[in-house]
Specification:
The complex is a heterodimer of chains A (502) and B (486).
Chain A (H helix, E strand, L loop, with lengths): L2 H18 L5 H20 L2 H6 L5 E9 L4 E7 L1 H20 L8 H20 L3 H22 L4 H30 L4 H10 L6 H18 L8 H8 L2 H26 L1 H27 L4 H20 L4 H32 L10 H4 L1 H14 L6 H16 L1 H26 L5 H6 L5 H19 L5 H27 L1
Antiparallel strand pairs in A: 1-2
Chain B lengths: L8 H6 L1 H19 L4 H26 L2 E3 L4 E3 L1 H27 L6 H18 L3 H19 L6 H32 L4 H10 L4 H18 L8 H8 L2 H24 L6 H23 L5 H22 L2 H29 L14 H4 L1 H15 L5 H15 L3 H27 L13 H19 L2 H10 L5
Antiparallel strand pairs in B: 1-2
Helix pairs in contact in B: 2-3, 2-5, 3-4, 4-5, 4-11, 4-14, 4-19, 5-6, 5-11, 6-7, 6-11, 7-9, 7-10, 9-11, 10-11, 10-13, 11-13, 11-14, 12-13, 12-18, 13-14, 13-17, 13-18, 14-16, 14-17, 14-19, 14-20, 16-18, 16-19, 17-18, 17-19
The chains are: A mainly alpha (502), B mainly alpha (486).
């Protein structure tokens, strides 16, 4: 048992401990969960050193049998990519708790308990090295988020929660079928073992098998990402979810899909991934442009940010299927940067909602004069989101575009239009919300950021700048992990080139 | 052989659970006649529970004396022991739930427990039957007692309707079964499963006739397990029957009907497998679809659970279709897991429904999580297990079934079955929505949960979770016992 195992178990234990607390003592519940999640975050920081020493291999590995028939193992470990995603989860959980301090006043215990359960699922997803274990954590994430949206959401929360659950379920059952098929051929769910068998040729898929298996996995991930045209659950879920739910959903849960593609689809099915890349990239580019265009005309701020997520995640998928180092690195970087910047955007929109009880842009105006600090924080986040140099998104989007251009210049040309459009919709929203006449209601209700709110947003702002200015803190380890994944892909491709050459 | 008509002692041991249950039932019947005051009733339920406990021990004794008994009429093997234990456990849970329920409905009489014992005796006999006449007797003993149990609340119209429907359609199906048995006897000259197998192997006048006979029997079994297109009775019966009885019917008799079906088709009729596999394939898919899609529109929880039980029969049929040892083991695991989670769900319905079972719609559950958080949390566990969310018994049940199907190269059935379970998520989630996402409609103080019911809820929930984390506890046993004596 190493630190990672403790880190996986800790949120689950926290979940049960929270359930044991007295229901009426709201202060105690909030303080306990915040303190607990901060300790978990602090513990997760201790993981960094070891993983950064050898980011291309799996570190903190535990491999123990769980169920004998069929052979299912508790096999976890982290490399340079999963490290940052785990940290993103443990980092945003205490922030989400602090964020909900005032907003959640109804059924407090369940809310904070569910946030910890969600953290348990998320950490598990990013470190599982057994297909079955991955599926278990993947499904566990669904339950707390379903309740977060359904209980504490806005008016159409039930519809949104059901849609979220069913959509994800449809995708994941097909993934389960594919996993069972792999097991029937390989005799194991152990992911590194399967990769070894594929490499050594002990396990081989026919072309049709590989394509179908790839599609079954990809569909589950694409729904989660979400890739156009499977994105329709996302705006509903985001608009209806409470602020903390939106933050966790956008910042971390969407990354489960892209992480899945990176971790499983690309290394396990290199040929299918390469063959199917063209249409997937086309969908990703449609998603980038379509998401941006729809965001442009949204009267509702939260919906606008939700559609901007569709657009940003399109970049990630584009990068993943460009099939080169820049693309992959950029994709992972956008995953992290989008987590920070969009998380912050949802948070700030949530702050506005708590003050004015409206998400409609038309109900605001001139907020800059009423709440200058809030406006400044919002501006920095906006600029980060549109990919301003020196802020986080820029690095990732630039790498993705470079990677895409390397493979096909037209991909980059069309995708780049998304960057321009993002500037349009974000700045236009900013202008309508924060500048112009200040209506009486805004002057009356919208006051400036309080200390607690600063405590939520400040770490995110700092990270936006850090990730924008000094990407070297993150890129080498991401690159090393991606290198390993890429090696597998190109090995197969190289073999094909040789064959064609003859 | 001589004139020794008394069976050897080993035979008696192999038959011990049935003997215990029958004697206990008969004695309690007499006791009931002599004791008419209020106090005697709790005595009878306690004694009945003890009888089931002894029968469980008897199952272990029978298992320790494996082999054929009573001139090859019954067989004591692991497979039989497994299903005997499952139905006896379900019977025990039923008693735990029923005492307070019957008191609430003011009809707590001893007959209930006595009928339950007889029904269990029939079911145990079915699990161990090695002979078509024994199957038939077991089925009838079990069914007739169940018909009465379904209509136990005499003054309740719905219960009467339920019992009558169950009786009429059930008799009709049994007639099919018996007709099939008659054909088989005509062709092979035997009703013994092993002899039939041998007879078919040696050569029969016409395989078409054998297939037709097997088809008749399949109709009879399909009715008992509520497989499409013979499922129409299930929702009506589950809706009308008293909630603890509905739980009993959905778990015990169904499990054992599957057991008989597996035994008969894997031993006697193994030769016709190629022709009945496509039939089962279609039947499994149809059953899942009918159950799941019809359940989507239900507002009455008992009725919804009725349709859901049809869908779950469809999943088990997938396992039966594979016709493999892993498939049989998966079906055994699933039936045990389903018994736990479904009985748990019915136990909660029993409690929530209140006197006269007046609160049985999904709307009546609104805000349950605020009024009775523990009850809502337990029902959530059962529903998540029925959906098939990981770390619950239901998930591993589905997992093993579809794994067996993949192993037998039934990729399409697996994909369609799994998609079905995504459809099913919708109607279970509706219950969660009502419990957690709506505010309570009444301010009435919730009723106290009676002790027996409380034990049932917590026990089944705990087992559901334990099997969801350590499925090997049951699966290993099931795998060991899934090989049938041929």
């Amino acid at each position: 048992m190493n630190l990672l195992d403790i880190l996986i178990a800790a949120p689950l234990i926290g979940f049960f401990l929270t359930l044991l607390l007295p229901k009426d003592n709201k202060g105690l519940i909030k303080t306990f969960t915040l303190g607990y999640s901060l300790v978990v975050f602090a513990a997760s920081l201790l993981l960094i050193g070891t993983t950064l020493d050898r980011p291309s291999a799996m570190t903190w590995v535990t491999d123990a049998p769980w169920i004998s028939t069929p052979a299912i193992r508790y096999h976890v470990g982290m490399d340079g990519v999963s490290l940052w995603l785990v940290l993103l989860s443990t980092f945003l959980t205490p922030i989400s708790i602090l964020l909900s301090w005032k907003y959640i006043d109804h059924r407090v215990k369940e809310f904070f308990a569910f946030l910890l359960l969600l953290e348990f699922g998320l950490v598990g997803v990013f470190v599982s090295l057994d297909l079955f274990l991955f599926y278990v954590f993947w499904e566990i994430c669904l339950v707390p988020m379903y309740f977060l949206i359904g209980i504490w959401g806005h008016d159409r929360r039930i519809y949104a929660a059901l849609k979220f659950f069913i959509y994800t379920m449809v995708g994941s059952v097909l993934m389960l079928a594919a996993m069972l098929y792999i097991y029937s051929k390989a005799g194991t769910f152990d992911y590194p073992a399967i990769l070894l068998m594929l490499e050594s040729g002990k396990l081989a898929f026919t072309h049709l098998e590989e394509t179908l298996l790839f599609l079954a996995f990809f569909l589950a991930f694409a729904i989660k990402v979400p890739l156009f045209p499977l994105h329709t659950w996302l705006p509903d879920a985001h608009v209806e979810a409470p602020t903390a739910g939106s933050v966790m959903l956008a910042a971390v849960m969407l990354k489960m899909g892209t992480y899945g593609i990176l971790r499983f689809c690309l290394p396990m099915y290199p040929t299918a991934a390469k063959e199917n890349a063209p249409w997937i990239v086309v969908l990703a580019i449609i998603g980038i442009v379509y998401g941006a265009l729809v965001a442009l005309v949204q009267p509702n701020m939260k919906k606008l940010v939700a559609y901007s997520s569709v657009s940003h995640l399109g970049f990630v998928v584009l990068g993943l299927f460009s099939g080169n180092q820049w693309g992959l690195d950029g994709a992972v970087y956008v995953m992290l940067a989008h987590g920070i910047s969009t998380g912050a955007l949802f948070m700030l929109v949530g702050f506005l909602y708590e003050r004015q009880h409206s998400l409609e842009i038309k109900d605001y105006g001139g907020v800059a004069s009423a709440a200058p600090q809030l406006s400044t924080a919002f501006l920095v986040t906006t600029l980060a989101s549109i990919g301003m140099p020196m802020l986080c998104n820029f690095v990732g989007e630039y790498l993705v575009l470079q990677g895409a251009a390397k493979t096909n210049i037209w991909w980059a040309v069309f995708a780049a239009s998304g960057v321009i459009l993002s500037a349009c919709y974000m700045l236009w929203m900013y202008q309508r919300t924060f500048y112009g006449e200040t209506p009486e209601s805004v002057r009356h209700h919208v006051d400036d950021l309080k200390a607690r709110e600063w405590a939520c947003i400040l770490p995110l702002l700092a990270l936006m700048i850090w990730m924008g200015v000094y990407a070297q803190s993150f890129l080498p380890s991401i690159g090393a992990s991606n290198q390993t994944i890429l090696d597998r892909t190109t090995q197969t491709t190289r073999a094909e080139v040789v064959n064609h050459g003859r | 052989m001589g004139a020794n008509y008394f069976p050897p002692a080993a035979d008696m041991l192999r038959f011990l659970p049935e003997i215990v249950l029958t004697i206990a039932g008969t004695l309690l019947l007499l006791l009931e006649a002599f004791k008419k005051d209020e106090d005697s009733r709790s005595v009878i339920s306690t004694l009945a529970a003890m009888a089931i406990g002894i029968a469980m021990y008897g199952t272990v004794v029978a298992y320790d004396n494996p082999g054929l008994g009573f001139n090859k009429m019954i067989v004591s093997d692991g497979f039989a022991a497994f299903f005997r234990l499952v139905v006896l456990a379900v019977g025990l849970l039923t008693i735990l739930c029923s005492t307070s329920y019957l008191e609430r409905e003011k009809s707590n009489t001893g007959e209930f427990y006595i009928l339950l014992l007889f029904s269990l005796a029939g079911q145990c006999l079915m699990a161990a039957a090695n002979e078509l006449i024994m199957v038939f007797i077991g089925l009838e003993v079990s069914s007739i007692a169940s018909y009465i149990l379904a209509g136990y609340l005499r003054d309740d119209k719905r219960a009467n309707e339920s019992a009558l429907k169950y009786f009429l359609l059930g008799s009709f199906a049994t007639a099919f079964l018996l007709y099939g048995v008659a054909w088989v006897y005509g062709m092979t000259g035997s009703t013994n499963l092993l002899d039939i197998r041998e007879g078919i192997a040696k050569g029969v006048p016409s395989m078409v006739m054998v297939s037709a006979a097997a088809g008749f029997m399949l109709v009879g079994f399909a009715f008992k397990i509520s497989a499409a297109p013979f499922q129409v009775w299930a929702p009506d019966v589950y809706q009308g029957a008293p909630a603890p009885v509905a739980g009993f019917l959905s778990a015990g008799p169904k499990a054992v009907a599957f057991a008989v079906m597996i035994r008969v088709f894997q031993t006697a009729f193994e030769a016709v497998t190629p022709s009945w596999e496509p039939v089962l394939w279609v039947m499994a898919l149809a059953t899942m679809m009918v159950g799941n899609f019809a359940a989507l529109w239900q507002n009455n929880i008992k009725r919804m659970l009725g349709y859901s039980s049809i869908a779950h029969a469809g999943y088990v049929l997938v396992a039966v279709t594979t016709h493999s040892t892993t498939g049989t083991a998966a079906a055994m695991f699933y039936l045990a897991a389903y018994g736990l989670m479904n009985y748990g769900a019915f136990a909660i319905v029993t409690h929530v429904a209140g006197r006269g079972e007046e609160r049985v719609t999904i709307d009546d559950l609104k805000g349950l999580s605020q009024r009775q958080p523990a009850v809502a949390a337990l029902l959530t566990i059962f529903l998540l297990s029925l959906i098939g969310v990981p770390l619950t018994a239901g998930f591993f049940g589905k997992f093993y079934i579809f794994k067996a199907a993949i192993d037998s190269h039934m990729v399409w059935l697996t994909a369609l079955g799994l998609l079905n379970s995504a459809v099913a998520a919708y109607y279970y989630l509706r219950v969660l929505v009502a419990m957690y996402m709506h505010d309570p409609q009444t301010t009435e103080h919730p009723e106290e949960i009676p002790g027996g019911l409380k034990i049932t809820m917590w026990l089944t929930a705990a087992m559901t979770v334990v099997l969801g984390i350590f499925p090997g506890l049951v699966l290993d046993i099931a795998t060991k016992f899934a090989v049938l004596n041929k």
